[in-house]
Structure formats: C-alpha cells, structure tokens
Write a structure and sequence with these properties.
244 residues; mainly beta; 2 helices; single chain; globular; disordered N terminus
Length: 244
C-alpha cells in the first residue's frame, strides 16, 4: 500500500495547483525511433572530449550507426566490440516550442544509463554514481534488456532547456562487468503536443498513452518515478489533482 504523511500530500498538491502550469496534450508523436542513426563512441576508444553531452558539440569524429547499438543480444542495429560503456548522441529539431507539453524517453538497456538533454540530466537508471559518470565506469547494478522503460522529462527542465531548433539527446550506457556478454541501447523519444497539427512521426504500434480531454470528476495523477509499489517500505511519489 502506498502511504503518504498528510503534510507531504498537502505540499505536493499545492505544487500542482499553480494556475496555467500547462495546457492539455492533444496527441503524441515520435521524434525518432530506436533504429534511428546515432553518433557513438566506445570506452575502448578512451575518454571522449569534454562537453560531449552538450548541444552543438562537434561529433564529426564519432562513428555513426543505426540503433540499437550494442552487442550480444542478436537484436542490435549496429554491432560493436565488447566494451565497458558506450556514449551516444542524437540531434533532433523542435519546430514549434510553444506546442510542446511533454517529452517521454523510452529506454531498453543493459545494464545502466544516464541521459542528458542539451547537457542537462533528464533520466537515470540504478547503478551509476556521480553527476557525470566516468566514461569507463562499471555499473553496480545489473539490468537485462527486453522491456522498454518510460522516463518523463521533468516539466521544469523541459521548459528551461528544450530549445527551438536543434537539440541534442546524449546517453551513456554502462555494463556491470568488463567481460559482460551483452550491452544494449535502444532509445525512443516521444513528444506530447497541445495542438492537432502533425509535426513529427507517427508513434510506434507499442505506444499507448491515455489523454484526458474532459471529465465531470477531478482527476488524480500519481507519479511513482518508475518505481514499483511494494507493501513495505514506503516510497516517495508525486500526487496531483486536475480539477477544472
């Protein structure tokens, strides 16, 4: 059972009652699919240049390959040599910044990852320490690929760091062992728009996401931040109410 102290719930609800915080999402589109072309750098090549996570970084010296990029799973679009870690970069363009309400990152990975939007962290799995994990760091957690995990970009980060025009998604994927038999890095980026105009790509067949357009009752929205809800111990989550 998910339990919240009364004071914590009150504070969380107040944070969701800010007038005009966002418009409703009309529909979702894909910015790119997991088989898109990525620039990549293996830890076998040594430490990448400083600033590789940033938008505008010159990655012309990196190798290009179609995702997913990895080895050992017989499902990689680009097969690479065994390595401790893999650095990835993918640029994308935002055509209408005011239309963007949400950005969803879907990762199917082995064993751990950190993702950055224009140099700012937006998602992280278990297993990696430090604000910027070292290029050859090994994950302290093991995670087998085979299922996509959804990470919603924080609304405040999205507002402050998503840009009109070119943006860059940078991802570092790490193994738990230097002799690991596999490494996976499948990435999909999906965008939520507040108008009906089509600007990007159709969402994949596996993507489902309910969008409320109207309701006679208040809508409770709970985000567990990709955590399971055990009977014990308690977890930290966010709770909000949409009440028009």
């Amino acid at each position: 059972m998910l339990r919240f102290p009364l004071l914590s719930v009150t504070l969380l609800l107040l944070s969701f009652f800010t007038p005009g915080r966002s418009q409703s999402i009309d529909h979702y589109e894909s910015v790119f699919y997991s088989d898109a072309s990525f620039a990549y750098w293996s830890s076998n090549q040594g430490e990448p240049d400083a600033g590789w996570r940033a938008n505008g970084f010159d990655d012309s010296g990196w190798t290009m390959g179609n995702g997913g990029i990895g080895y050992g799973d017989n499902d990689d679009g680009t097969v690479i040599d065994v390595c401790n870690a893999l650095m990835l970069r993918k640029t994308f363009h935002v055509t209408n910044l005011t239309a963007v309400e949400q950005l969803l990152l879907f990762m199917d990975y082995d064993d751990a990852f950190v993702a950055y939007l224009n140099g700012i962290e937006i998602a992280r799995s278990a297993g990696l320490n430090g604000a910027y994990p070292a290029y050859n760091q090994l994950s302290t957690a093991q995670h087998e690929a085979g299922a996509r995990e959804k990470f919603a970009v924080d609304a405040a980060l999205l507002k402050s760091h998503l840009k009109s025009g070119q943006n860059t998604l940078a991802i570092q994927v790490h193994n738990a062992s230097a002799t690991s038999s596999d490494l996976s890095s499948n990435t999909d980026l999906i965008i939520g728009l507040n108008h009906a105009t089509v600007e990007y790509l159709p969402t994949p067949a596996w993507f489902t996401h309910s969008v409320f357009t109207s309701s006679n009752l208040p809508i409770l929205v709970m985000d567990t931040h990709n955590q399971n809800i055990p009977d014990d111990p308690k977890i930290t989550a966010s709770l909000g109410i949409i009440y028009n």
